[in-house]
Amino acid sequence: MSATNRGGAAVGRLADLAPVEAGAVMYLRLWSDGAHGRDDAASDFNLALGTEQGRAAMMTLEQICMLCAKYSRRPMIRHGLSCSCLGADENCFAQMIGAASDGDREDAMLMASLLVRADYAPSLAVLSEKLGMALRRMVQPQPYQKATHRPHTAVVH
To answer: What string of DSSP letters covers 21-52?
Structure first.
């Protein structure tokens, strides 16, 4: 397997990830799927978090994905939207978001440095914390929130 394909190697199943990590992979895939996928992601964020926080979460996802696309150490490999496999790059991305949302900044920074150039890893780690916290709010709704829509993160258990 060449170095450029290593990132796509299946390392697990999406269903085996915790909800925040699975959501991170699903929203990465949606964003990468083009305008329709991005609209779906934005809709999920708005419905689950409200317009203001939803827009902020989508902007953070866009910043993360654009940073990864522009400053990645090598092209990041993603599986298709409906694929149940978890690729190596996707797993690194998921673990970065999960660690950041748990407040494990050093681990998030380590994962970020595997994805992007070292000079952009701190920015990626900070953005990962923002997105991770938004995903955490989506999968752990407050008791007073009435669920009217099941965002993509709720699909994976």
So the answer is: HHHHHHHHHHHHT-HHHHHHHHHHHHHHH-HH
Token readout for 2 is 């060449």
> In what helix (H) or strand (E) does residue 87 lie, and over which residues does it extend?
strand 85-87
- Dist CA 118 CA 72 (whole Å): 10
Q: Cα-flanking dihedrals φ and ψ of residue 82, to 5°?
A: -95, 0
Cα–Cα separations (whole angstroms), residue 68 to 46, 90, 113:
24, 12, 11
pLDDT score for 155: 41
The pTM (predicted TM-score) of the whole model is: 0.85
Distances (CA, A) of 135 to 6, 39, 120: 27, 17, 22
Please state whether beta strands 10-13 and 85-87 pair in parallel, antiparallel, or not at all (unpaired).
Answer: antiparallel
* Alpha carbon distance 126, 100 (integer Å): 8
Q: Are 156 and 15 in contact (CB under 8 A)?
A: yes
